[in-house]
Amino acid sequence: MSKLIGIAASSGIAIAKAYRLVEPDLTVEKKEIEDSAAEVLRFQDALNKAKAELEKIRDRAGKELGQDKAAIFEAHLLVLSDPELIAPIEDKVKTEKVNAEYALKETSDMFVSMFEQMDNEYMQERAADIRDVTKRVISHLLGVQIPNPSMVTEEVIVVAEDLTPSDTAQLNRTYVKGFTTDIGGRTSHSAIMARSMEIPAVVGTKAATSEISNGDLVIVDGLTGEVHINPSAELVEKYQKISSDFEAQKAEWAKLVNEPTVSADGHHVELAANIGTPKDLKGVKENGGEGIGLYRTEFLYMDRDQLPTEEEQFTAYKAILEGMEGKPVVVRTLDIGGDKELPYLNLPKEMNPFLGFRAIRLCLEEQDIFRTQLRALLRASIHGNLKIMFPMIATLVEFREAKAILEEEKQLLINEGIAVSKDIELGIMVEIPSTAVMAEQFAKEVDFFSIGTNDLIQYTMAADRMNERVSYLYQPYSPAILRLVKMVIEAAHKEGKWAGMCGEMAGDETAIPILLGLGLDEFSMSATSILKARSLIRHLNKAEMGQLAESVLSLSTTEEVIEAVNSAIKL
Fold first, then answer.
1. Which domain holds residue 178?
2. pTM for the complete prediction?
3. Do 124 and 179 reside in the same domain of the chain?
4. How many domains does the chain have?
5. 196-237 tens-digit pLDDT
6. Which residues are catalytic?
7. What's the pLDDT at 339?
């Protein structure tokens, strides 16, 4: 029995066997063989196993993710049946008397290199297919398993170094009860996705993959950040009680699902949800979301091998707008870059991707991508209460250029006889310090602000939020951050506009009293945080929180702010 300490990233308790989502060692060595016929049979057996595996994955992908995702695996199956690839491998085994995995790797490397050098996008994609299927067949030849969490058929806790957004999106919610990672923080995308999927998570343990083996019994404590490996029966029983108590608390919060969010002295604020896909709507409704404060559209573009079409995007946006039944839906335009990559765009590697060619910067240069998304959004706008916001805006010129493109596409649609809503509010994410400082000027031209604290904090403090070694600088309660937030809210209100927050700080129980006091209009968070936040706000007096907010702005450190909040409301 042992214990790891990490960061509590998503609330709840999970108890299950470990499933390691770690790339296996597929190193291939050249070996001479005696019986080439037997070696060819071994190769064919590995091929058949890989085909059977891919057929299962294809069928499940078709059912759960759509036929476009299943087509990827159909292409992989075609590669495994291609005599142009298979025959040379078998010939190499027979003529050179070498082991099958070596013959496979040598032959596939040759094809991959040849296809990658062709000036043809289709052939370059075939190179990627060959690389993927080669890895799968080699894994069978070496007798090691390539992890695939979407194929899990029993309750597990996923253990990984980190989880990419696409990894997390593919987790089978029926069986994946929680996860723990070596790296990451509370605002890493894997943590955010865990909250949206309502599964407990502990990230940043530093040693999960080195300490936990496949099949180990694991307890993930998403309330305290502890991970217990092969716990005693007594500890399991203790955690079953903690889990039961937590579920009882959630049941109490659930009584507020249809209640408005009103402070003790009658001040109403809006509690909205951050989502990544239309599938997240269920959680928003079950948790009493009063709107969508952030729809991260980049998930439409990820985990695929080409850009989504206008029609695909229109269908997704329409589903969300209709699903929210007239409640506000704030859609963020494509925010790719930083830790979110699209391999098929072939963007150059950057020294500082978080500060580089990303979000609105990419969209203003790659206008075909941007215009397709805007057309889809504008077409969907008549199906609900749509608000559009641009991410990573640093200057007024960027906002004006993006708005002009939107207006051009709107007019083109109208000219085509396509209906477009006349009431689309247009806002920006405030996540760059310079934008917060210039909020008074922006407020004259935008319809609303949504403060993206995840990036605003890391840019203000010059601390990468994915880096555990500087995680102590990721300080949402820093007086510096609170002063920037105040500037944005006051600038919006001066022009009669509203200010929201879609960063994780909006659902933080220490930050909520301060934000209420500062006059924040909309709090957008993971859906699972909404009812807890509503319960807290109902016990807070807005006027008193205004005095608290004013007092903490004059403090010097994060620690002093936390102490002041705790003293004021007895957290």
1. 2-22+149-251
2. 0.74
3. no
4. 3
5. 778 899 998 999 999 999 999 999 999 999 999 999 999 999
6. 189, 502
7. 61
